[in-house]
Amino acid sequence: MSAVSMTACSGSPIQPGPGPIVQPPPPPPPPPPGPVPVLGITKILAFGDSMTEGVDSPPLALTAAEWTLPLSAGRSQSYPFKLKALLEARYTGQAFSVYNGGRAGRSAREDRERFSQALSEAGRPELVLLMEGANDFNRPLEVGEGINARVRAVVDALEDMVREASNRGIPVMIATLPPQRPNSPKGFGTEYVPRFNDLVRTMAASKGAQLVDVGSLPLSFIGQDGLHPSEAGYARIAEMWFDAIKARFERQP
């Protein structure tokens, strides 16, 4: 009997069995989403030439039907179309109308009347985005007309448009022109654009129009023809407009 007891005592100590498994506490739930931001405007008119219409490089052919369509956001590669998508993605509780008033081949000097018509057709927009002038510089100078006179005439035409919108109580954002590629098939305005952009900056400040510096767009966003942005360029231009609109008109609900 004692031998059995000694054998038991000389063995390894008996280990206690495993206890209950304790699970870590679950992570706290994510905070509830914040309020959806709100934009103070919902109806925008974008006005200009082919760079508003959305002609990219190499340019797309414009069909006759597209000249007579009612105002809409336009072609999917255009900056107004892409701007509308950016607005809808951020301000999910609102519906937006972005009207594309861009028409290829138009010049600012001949577009005062069309601008008036577009303002009326858009049904009193709450904001005008204005970018035009490239075609004015892609046309030969008149006899006796100097570069400075051409630049001044184009800026004067844009100033008239800003004045008309302001007289209707519509705020205006105006863009400098994107750069043009030297020695390219359509970049005929390379010597005009810097002077033009300087005068646009001055005019915008004097007339209370907000400047959007599309002229800072890198040349890598300009397409093969040297004039029109690529689709990536239009996307970047849309972002520039969007940033300016957001900074000015966004408010918390």
Your description of this structure?
The protein has about 250 residues and is α/β, with parallel strands linked by helices. It has a single domain (about 35-250), classed as 3-Layer(aba) Sandwich (Rossmann fold), CATH 3.40.50. It has helices at about 1-10, 50-55, 65-70, 80-90, 110-120, 135, 145-165, 195-205, 230-250; strands at about 40, 45-50, 95-100, 125-130, 170-175, 210, 250. The chain has a 5-stranded parallel β-sheet, with helices on both faces. The chain has a two-stranded antiparallel ribbon with strand order 1-7. The model is unreliable at about 1-10 and about 60-70 (pLDDT under 50).
The whole-number mean of residue pLDDT values reads: 88
**Count of strand segments:** 7
Work out the helicity level.
25-40%
| CATH superfamily label | SGNH hydrolase
State which percent range the strand residues make up: 5-15%
Number of helical segments? Answer: 9
Look at the structure and give the CATH class.
Alpha Beta
Uncertain stretches of 5 or more adjacent residues:
1-9, 59-69
CATH topology: Rossmann fold
How is the largest sheet built, in terms of strand order?
Answer: 3-2-4-5-6
The total tally of domains equals: 1
Order of helices and strands: HEEHHHEHEHHEHEHE
- The computed structural class is alpha/beta
Characterize the biggest β-sheet.
5 strands, parallel
